[in-house]
Specification:
The protein has 294 residues and is of the alpha/beta class. Helices cover 43% and strands 14% of the residues. The chain binds NADP nicotinamide-adenine-dinucleotide phosphate.
Length: 294
């Protein structure tokens, strides 16, 4: 089959890292296409011999032209969380464009168990997985666990105040580093098999909110206690901090998801793709302790 790999969202953090790891795994620049809404941001990749092109999921025609000649298209899920079905429509456009362009394999960044997830945005992922499967094309679905880097949103402020407000109760989460996910995706895509696969890319351990607080505290030298609150109290606090209504719903649903135990899935898929264990949260905190206020 045509073994080009077209990476959408190439100017995003995950997209850039996937390309970095495709190159590190020996995929030649001529086999990679970097698609983005902002080609000007990828001059470094163009200089390295990678074809950079415009790819916006809102533009079905342009996208179909861009995908023309691609072997595999990696559809990186977008960040269009506006409380409507905008994101699902974007992803369906990407799938339709890939079919129209006669690509050979589809890949997609989803989330664990989208059919039973309580996250507000889970229907986007379920709907996209269904659209991909309905094409009949070979696919690779990467159900990405919760990034360790998401903790940069709440923890630096919590460490400043010494209190972390959480509605997760005893819920445990298997955080995984964004770069480990990117490397696992690159490892899977570097193979040219046409066998459809679904990977669930998680960390190797689950941690409660208290255990996470203890690790953050050890890394930064700052005390941190967990204050258990209800979903309503959490929402009120987030709104008071100036967070938009839609994003408050997203963040509260993350706590609901954790409480239900849905973020505590652990698989060995990252380790088997990388040939090493994924980075542990304790190591992430130590590596990035200054970002957390140490
Ligand atoms: N598992 C987790 O914990 C977690 C956390 C945060 C986000 N995510 C999801 O994973 C994705 C990648 O994560 P990230 O860290 O790389 O996020 P990011 O840096 O915020 O990147 C956002 C991505 O969305 C793409 N995008 C936005 N609008 C688009 C459009 N109209 N057409 C095509 N692409 C569009 C961007 O592509 P260009 O700018 O290159 O056009 C970029 O790749 C996110 O977009 C989100 O769906 C997962």
């Amino acid at each position: 089959m045509n073994d080009n790999i077209f990476v959408t969202g190439a100017a995003g953090q995950l997209g850039r890292l996937v390309i970095k790891h495709l190159l590190a795994r020996g995929v030649t620049p001529s086999r990679i296409v970097a698609g983005t809404r902002s080609p000007d941001k990828l001059a470094d990749l163009a200089a390295a011999g990678i074809e950079v092109c415009s790819a916006d999921f809102e533009d079905l025609r342009g996208l179909t032209e861009a995908f023309n000649g691609a072997g595999t298209v990696l559809i990186i899920s977008t960040d269009a969380l506006d409380g409507t079905d905008t994101r699902l429509k974007q992803h369906r456009n990407a799938v339709a464009a890939a079919v129209a362009a006669d690509v050979k394999r589809l890949a997609y960044t989803s989330l664990p168990n989208p059919d039973s997830s309580l996250l507000t945005f889970a229907p986007d992922h379920l709907g996209t997985e269904q659209a991909i499967k309905a094409t009949g094309l070979p696919y690779v679905i990467f159900r990405n666990g919760w990034y360790q880097e998401n903790l940069l949103r709440a923890l630096p402020n919590a460490l400043k105040s010494g209190q972390w407000h959480s509605a997760a109760e005893g819920g445990r989460t298997s955080y995984v580093g964004r770069e480990d996910i990117a490397e696992a995706i690159a490892a899977a895509l570097a193979t040219s098999t046409l066998e459809s696969r679904t990977y669930t890319l998680t960390g190797s351990e689950t941690l409660s909110t208290e255990e996470i607080a203890r690790l953050a505290s050890q890394a930064t030298g700052k005390p941190l206690s967990v204050v258990h609150v209800t979903d309503g109290q959490l929402a009120t606090g987030l709104k008071a901090a100036g967070i938009s209504e839609i994003f408050v719903s997203v963040l509260v649903s993350v706590e609901v998801e954790a409480r239900a135990g849905n973020l505590s899935i652990v698989t060995d898929h990252v380790a088997s793709l990388l040939g090493r264990a994924p980075r542990r949260l304790a190591d992430y905190f130590m590596q990035e302790k200054s970002a957390f206020g140490a």
